[in-house]
């Protein structure tokens, strides 16, 4: 897969920086994508089996990264090792190499150098045909280790490939705190065969619209938990169970365990389809907004905004409106709780805690020693 199809995928995931080595038939192929607004990446050398780039950020130490996809042919692989060895001798900067080396080593050696699954590649759907080993790895030189002594690599579960993804964190992994998210309508609910019936039976027939909507939201939360199932929690649970199956060494895997992993993968595929509907609905709302402006007192024709408030920003302007609305709600919450004290324009004037403009804001509050 490459060429125009690779370009379409790049636009879909919004990674504007890229370099790649296209596959030859069904073998090889390396894609390397990044976001130029976050990190500066300069391609240094491209080879049929690897890509080397220089990575830097403002105020940071530049380092080299080599994405490897080694040939299964030992003769071609010797050429790869020769190229990497030459670069190592001439390079005195921090350097990381990662991905598929198509080489196996004893799993008993340096077992603490990664977290996650021991085997990064597997194939076969029965105990008789099942094969697995560690082909993918991340390596670094001593220079990088001296700058990033907490650098870590994690082998993630494989879901859509026979290879596990590698997650590299130069500053180590920070555990994510659990956040209670507010209730939101999920477009994936509409795929459930009983959803329409549920709405008809639970929509209050009396009262003001906001109160009826609040009553329905309470019923929807219960329905989501007990009938539909929270897709994000289901996804997390399925991924954890698949990882548990894959952690079992291939030498002791039973037919029942392999069948369970296949069943869990099918369940995860359905969850991912529902999640895709969820995100597609959000992007449809963001990218399909149309508006009019007054020109000499007359409304213009409807048009679709293609640039955000900031010059050159490809995001829809509506995203900024959504962010400001959320920030306003957070400020109001603190204000009504007495934690945010605004200022008075005059003795009997209105209290002001913020002013929002198109591309700027001013926040007002009482300054205290605390």
From TrEMBL:
It comes from the Eukaryota. InterPro entries: Endo/exonu/phosph_ase_sf, RT_dom. Gene3D superfamilies: Endonuclease/exonuclease/phosphatase. Pfam families: RVT_1 (PF00078). Residues 255-366 form the Reverse transcriptase domain. PANTHER family: ENDONUCLEASE_EXONUCLEASE_PHOSPHATASE DOMAIN-CONTAINING PROTEIN (PTHR35218:SF9), RNASE H DOMAIN-CONTAINING PROTEIN (PTHR35218). This is Reverse transcriptase domain-containing protein. It comes from Saponaria officinalis (Common soapwort).
């Amino acid at each position: 897969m490459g060429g125009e199809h690779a370009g379409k995928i790049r636009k879909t995931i919004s990674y504007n920086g890229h370099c790649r080595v296209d596959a030859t038939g069904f073998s090889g192929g390396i894609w390397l994508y990044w976001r130029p607004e976050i990190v500066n990446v300069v391609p240094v050398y491209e080879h049929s089996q690897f890509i080397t780039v220089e990575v830097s950020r403002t105020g940071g130490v530049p380092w080299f990264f080599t994405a490897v996809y080694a040939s299964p042919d030992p003769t071609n692989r010797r050429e790869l090792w020769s190229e990497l060895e030459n670069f190592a001798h001439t390079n005195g900067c921090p350097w990381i190499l990662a991905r598929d080396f198509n080489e196996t080593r004893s799993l008993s050696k340096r077992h603490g150098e990664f977290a996650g699954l021991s085997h990064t590649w597997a194939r076969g759907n029965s105990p008789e045909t099942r094969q697995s080993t560690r082909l993918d790895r991340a390596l670094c030189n001593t220079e990088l280790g001296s700058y990033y002594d907490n650098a870590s690599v994690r082998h993630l579960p494989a879901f859509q490939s026979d290879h596990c993804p590698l997650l590299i964190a130069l500053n180590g992994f920070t555990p994510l705190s659990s956040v209670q998210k507010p209730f939101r309508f999920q477009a994936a609910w509409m795929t459930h065969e009983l959803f329409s019936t549920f709405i008809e039976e639970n929509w209050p027939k009396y009262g003001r619209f906001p109160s009826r909507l609040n009553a329905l939201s309470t019923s929807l939360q219960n329905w989501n938990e007990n009938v539909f199932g929270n897709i994000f929690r289901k996804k997390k649970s399925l991924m954890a169970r698949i990882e548990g199956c894959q952690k079992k060494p291939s030498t002791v895997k039973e037919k029942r365990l392999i069948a369970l992993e296949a069943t869990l993968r099918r369940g995860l595929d359905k969850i991912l389809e529902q999640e895709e509907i969820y995100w597609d609905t959000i992007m449809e709302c963001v990218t399909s907004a149309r508006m009019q402006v007054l020109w000499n007192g007359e409304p213009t024709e409807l048009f679709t905004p293609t640039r955000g408030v900031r010059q050159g920003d490809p995001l829809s302007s509506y995203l900024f409106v959504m962010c400001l609305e959320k920030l306003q709600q957070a400020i109001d919450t603190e204000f009504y709780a007495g934690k945010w004290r605004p200022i008075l324009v005059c003795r009997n004037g209105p209290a002001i805690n913020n002013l929002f403009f198109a591309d700027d804001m001013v926040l007002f509050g009482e300054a205290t020693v605390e």
